[in-house]
Design a protein that fits this description.
- With 87 residues, this protein is of the alpha+beta class.
- It has a single domain, classed as Glutaredoxin.
- It has three helices and four strands.
- Helix 1 links the parallel strand 1 and strand 2.
- It starts with 5 loop residues before the first strand and ends in a 10-residue tail after the last helix.
Length: 87
Amino acid sequence: MGSDGRVVLYTTAGCHLCEQALQLLEANQLQISLVEIADDDQLFERYGLRIPVAATGAGEELDWPFDQQQLQAWLEGVQLKSPAGHA
């Protein structure tokens, strides 16, 4: 995630787990950039067995599996939680 509040989701076509991760991220009203790892050999080598992976521009990563509670804790830890998500 960059300074603009965007979360990167490393994904690939046909990945049903990636679709689940995307739904969790969208539920938090985050700006999301999808990165297709199949288009980049280095990304494929790094994330091929780990996807989906959510990441920030600062290098913070959250590997699947994660649920809403784990995602919220990660977002709070990296100070990315959207104001709409606060109680």
